[in-house]
Design brief:
about 350 residues; alpha/beta; single chain; disordered N terminus; globular
Length: about 350
């Protein structure tokens, strides 16, 4: 079994998207896929888990907690680190009572799962709060002190230079990022999505600028191939990661990929990232896509995907004519035993609806 545990940087996936979540069975199957493809961690942070977000103060129902414990065992057996992403939703907006005791209690409940990684996530929350950075730093430090996880990763409210964040969540307080550089424990990593919320590349100059700004190398939260936004929910993002990803290794603290709502189809682009890191300047995205499709899907389906990639990833559902949509359905129904084809058919049947709670595309 391959693992990238001794490589720089560690890379894995974060199930951190809106819309239709993965099934527990899909999550379990991913342990083996990630291990075989050199990924070293999986972070459970689906946006529809209310006990990680709106109702973060409350422990999971018994059946969900049991499913998470089972999932933790599966990842441990596969030698893939298991993480939990907690979003203490608007903990700092309710001044009527002190929620620090509730935060301690919630993290102790999470401790029962023995996560290797705990993420404290302040994305998708209002940010125009005086002293926001210091408040979030205090919460992150408290979480780190209470958690039994070996690694803490923090996501700020403003995790990119993308102006959409201030449009949606309010004006960023002055010296926001600089305060993290000065005050946030250096052992705590910080998520960053790049120049945009959904970045396709991470220029060296940008990463160096961010590292200086936040006082540590950024831990990339990669919003490719995720497709939960208003535009991208119409697309299947199947192509391999771009060549620039082969040059990131010494510039970042880690790399977490946010996959699509479609777990099987997500494997196609996900399988290309370890190739990029391993092959470096010899990495060719188009060749990787062809090879991976053949390896995962079989030659016949792989050839069909390559023929249809423009319709699936560039045009998307809204731009397909009814005739084109029906033709694709007929084509992929021929691959009766393929979970990849089944997800394409479900997508063509509008079974992956856009969640308007996703605000940042």
């Amino acid at each position: 079994m391959h693992t990238n545990e001794n490589c720089t940087p560690p890379f894995g996936i974060i199930e951190g998207f809106f819309g239709r979540s993965w099934s527990w069975e899909d999550r379990k199957k991913y342990a083996q896929f990630l291990a075989l493809n050199e990924y070293s961690f999986y972070i459970y942070a689906p946006k529809d888990d209310k006990n990680l977000r709106k109702n973060w103060q409350t422990d999971w129902p018994v059946d969900v907690k049991k499913s998470l414990a089972d999932l933790r065992r599966v990842y441990r057996a596969a030698n893939v680190r298991f993480g939990i992403g907690l979003s203490p939703h608007e903990i700092y907006l309710d001044n009527s009572h002190d929620q620090r005791a509730q935060l301690d209690q919630r993290i102790k409940q999470i401790n029962q799962l023995e996560p290797d990684i705990l993420c404290i996530l302040f994305d998708d929350m209002r940010g125009d709060i005086p002293g926001l950075a210091q408040i979030q730093i205090d919460i992150a430090h408290q979480a780190a002190a209470t958690s039994n996880a070996k690694k803490i990763i923090f996501c700020p409210t403003y995790y990119s230079f993308d102006p959409v964040l201030e449009r949606v969540f309010g004006a960023m307080p002055e010296q926001y990022w600089q305060t993290f550089a000065q005050q946030l424990d250096k052992s705590i990593d910080m998520f960053w999505t790049g120049e945009k919320v959904c970045s396709t590349n991470y220029p060296t100059e940008h990463l160096a600028q961010v590292a200086e700004l936040i006082g540590r190398k950024p831990f990339i939260w990669d919003n490719y191939p995720v497709n939960d936004g208003a535009v991208k929910s119409n697309l299947l993002q199947l192509r391999a990661f771009e060549q620039g990803h082969s040059q990131l290794a010494d510039k970042i603290a880690g790399h977490a990929v946010n996959p699509m709502n479609q777990p099987w189809l997500s494997q196609i682009p996900l399988a290309s990232l370890p190739l990029a890191y391993r092959e470096k300047e010899n990495y060719l995205a188009d060749a990787a896509f062809t090879s991976i499709c053949n390896n995962l899907c079989g030659n016949e389906l792989a050839e069909q995907l390559q023929r249809d990639i423009h319709q699936l990833q560039d045009l998307g559902l809204k731009k397909l004519t009814q005739h084109e949509r029906q033709a694709l359905q007929t084509t992929y129904k021929q691959f009766t035993n393929s979970p990849y084809a089944q997800e394409i058919i479900a997508w063509l049947n509008d079974e992956y609806q856009f969640d308007p709670a996703c605000l940042t595309e």
